[in-house]
Task: inverse folding
């Protein structure tokens, strides 16, 4: 096997430090700006053409078929000790460190708090809409709390759809590139109030005792009635103690949400835990107008909830924000740099249980996290929303394309508790993907995406993957055989 094939075999779903980020797998180009048609016929379709409610599921399950598999028998250090400072695209992890979801399904968890988008679409004033959009951006990462399992890397051409009439949206995603790995998604409100889309290709690095996922890719939300578009990028996520000790997660970095119509901006600082863990999970920021005048202050925790207050009513918070979060330069470069001198056999201390957010009198509640199900710890710390993502009831496969994650045998086997079969199926699927790549190279053919095309984000001007339409017409005759 060539070194290139070995590289692809070990791809983890995240791109390399040395990658240009120019979507090298797929060379289809779309010149200029793509018009995102907002007509009912192309986006929503006729009511009679919709698939059965919630993909055929009337009542969602509340538990997985089998409990989480123990990871205590595996030595992560034996795998990672030679990889300190490298990105993880050349490392194959045992399946025991996965969770039974594809990364495409993990992306869908953005929609757990979709009611915040619906709320934004109903609000009359731009400041109110930005408050709800900011709350949605924070809520999108809330499901990662205590989620230390790694989602399965999507196969090239893999897809996932979710229709939730009870929540008022439908969602489609596709793995559009293998190197660098890129996942594209598109969602729309069933009442034509929003469109939500983007492409994600985070970069994953191992830093001795922690794994850091730096986000790449722009997220775009369009509120159709108001003719507004908002764009932002997610914060960095770090999992500590991957070698020894109790795993714990933090998010850090600055997220800027821009309203491209009004020029308003929301700046959110996701705080790193600090030396004594006092800042763990905290989020602080503000909304400003196009002249940089602060209109509203925001504070809270991404693991708990988010509040806001008028600047004139909150001197202490404004002073604290001025001290700011300078981007956490040390942590952004190497999360364990300040503590690594003790060696990788010493765990990072888990911060003490933090006090709940102290709500300032006069504050407005913007969002509160949903409670986890009581059996969450035995189900990979899934939320109730995440538990439902891979359920497959009899007959559903007739309405889904053959590329849907629910039909992927390695994930299904892991969910059912058969780890040996899951590992065998994972190896088989990876070999099938390599063989398909070799055949394309031999025939000098390029991979053709089905539901997305490479183009330019009409609001940022940056490269992006845009939904081409047609998925919900349900003609899946040309889908590839990837399983």
Result:
């Amino acid at each position: 096997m060539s070194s290139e094939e070995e590289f692809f075999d070990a791809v983890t779903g995240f791109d390399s430090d040395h990658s240009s980020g120019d979507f090298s797998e797929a060379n289809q180009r779309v010149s200029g700006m793509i018009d995102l048609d907002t007509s009912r016929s192309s986006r929503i379709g006729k009511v009679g053409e919709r698939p059965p409610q919630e993909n055929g599921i009337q009542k969602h399950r509340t538990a997985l078929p089998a409990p989480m598999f123990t990871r205590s028998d595996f030595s992560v250090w034996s795998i990672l000790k030679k990889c300190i400072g490298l990105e993880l695209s050349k490392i194959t992890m045992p399946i025991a460190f996965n969770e039974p979801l594809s990364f495409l399904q993990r992306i869908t968890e953005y929609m757990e708090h979709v009611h915040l988008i619906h709320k934004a679409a109903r609000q009359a004033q731009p400041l109110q809409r930005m408050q709800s959009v900011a709350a949605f951006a924070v809520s999108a990462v809330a499901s990662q709390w205590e989620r230390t399992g790694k989602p399965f890397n999507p196969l090239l051409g893999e897809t996932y759809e979710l229709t939730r009439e009870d929540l008022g949206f439908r969602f489609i995603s596709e793995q559009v590139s293998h190197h660098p790995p890129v996942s594209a998604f598109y969602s729309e409100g069933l009442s034509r109030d929003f469109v939500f889309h983007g492409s994600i290709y985070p970069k994953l690095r191992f830093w001795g005792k922690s794994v850091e996922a730096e986000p790449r890719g722009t997220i775009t939300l369009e509120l159709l009635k108001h003719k507004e578009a908002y764009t932002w990028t997610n914060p960095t996520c770090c999992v500590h103690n991957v070698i020894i000790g109790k795993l714990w997660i933090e998010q850090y970095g600055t997220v800027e949400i821009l309203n491209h119509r009004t020029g308003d901006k929301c700046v959110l600082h996701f705080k790193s835990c600090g030396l004594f863990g006092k800042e763990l999970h905290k989020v602080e920021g503000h909304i400003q107008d196009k002249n940089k005048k602060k209109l509203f202050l925001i504070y809270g925790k991404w693991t708990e909830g988010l509040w806001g207050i008028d600047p004139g009513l909150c001197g202490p918070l404004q002073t604290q924000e001025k001290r700011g979060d300078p981007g956490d330069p040390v942590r952004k470069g190497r999360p364990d740099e300040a503590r690594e001198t003790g060696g990788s056999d010493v765990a990072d201390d888990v911060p003490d249980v933090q006090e709940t957010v102290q709500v300032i009198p006069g504050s407005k509640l913007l969002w509160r996290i949903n409670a986890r199900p009581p059996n969450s710890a035995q189900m990979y710390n899934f939320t109730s929303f995440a538990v439902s993502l891979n359920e497959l009831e009899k007959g559903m496969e007739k309405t889904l394309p053959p590329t849907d994650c629910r039909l992927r045998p390695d994930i299904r086997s892991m969910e059912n508790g058969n780890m040996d079969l899951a590992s065998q199926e994972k190896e088989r699927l990876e070999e099938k993907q390599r063989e398909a790549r070799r055949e394309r190279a031999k025939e000098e053919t390029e991979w053709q995406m089905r539901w997305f095309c490479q183009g330019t984000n009409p609001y940022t001007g940056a490269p992006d993957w845009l939904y081409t339409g047609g998925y919900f017409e349900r003609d899946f005759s040309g889908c590839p055989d990837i399983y």
